[in-house]
Amino acid sequence: MADVLLSLTMPNDVAQHVEDLLLSRPDLVRGFTASVAEGHGSVVPLVEAAELVSGHSPRTQIRTVGSEESMRTVLALIKAELPQANVFYWLVPVIEMGRL
Known about the structure:
Blueprint: E1 3-11, H1 12-23, E2 33-39, H2 49-54, E3 57-67, H3 68-81, E4 88-93
Antiparallel strand pairs: 1-3, 1-4, 2-3
């Protein structure tokens, strides 16, 4: 089965919970990368004064690669454990991956 890239973008206050969930399932997630992101657009609520001034909301983005079945299981776990987390996700096929 081909691998897919799962990208998750979430409010910063949710990120640690998602990271803990991913770390608790090494059978599904071999590893992941977390990075700082900025949420822009009409679907991103700006609440804090600093967000209103800057025009964006702080976010964390987590990316991981695995089988489509495993990544869909990860999505189901996040939905079950954190149903109100406001996590945006996408899955894309991985053409190639490796280490250089």
